[in-house]
Specification:
Organism: Alkanindiges hydrocarboniclasticus
Shape: extended
Strand content: under 5%
Order of helices and strands: HH
Keywords: Membrane, Transmembrane, Transmembrane helix
Protein name: DUF2798 domain-containing protein
Mean pLDDT: 92
Pfam family, one: DUF2798
Length: 86
């Protein structure tokens, strides 16, 4: 069965260390910036435009932060969870 995603050429596996944090930071910063924008401004007619601006700024900060913090979080997690076997 052919799915829509299978029509596109995939990146090599070595890009996983960058693509996954890029997607994760985008999703997390979108959610957090939306909640923060709603809490501070409430429902506004131009909420979407305001939120997209705050999201972009948040993502610019979040992505490099995730790249730096993720290895530290992995090491800290291994204090509580068994290391995966190869």
């Amino acid at each position: 069965m052919i799915t829509p995603a299978s029509k596109f050429k995939k990146l090599p596996a070595r890009y996983m260390a960058v693509i996954m944090p890029l997607i994760l930071s985008g999703m997390m910063s979108a959610i957090v910036s939306l909640i923060s924008t709603l809490k501070s401004l409430g429902l506004q007619p131009d909420l979407l435009g305001i939120w997209l601006g705050t999201w972009l700024i948040s993502w610019i900060v979040a992505f490099p932060t995730v790249l730096v913090v993720l290895p530290v979080a992995r090491r800290f997690t291994l204090l509580f969870v068994q290391s995966p076997q190869p």
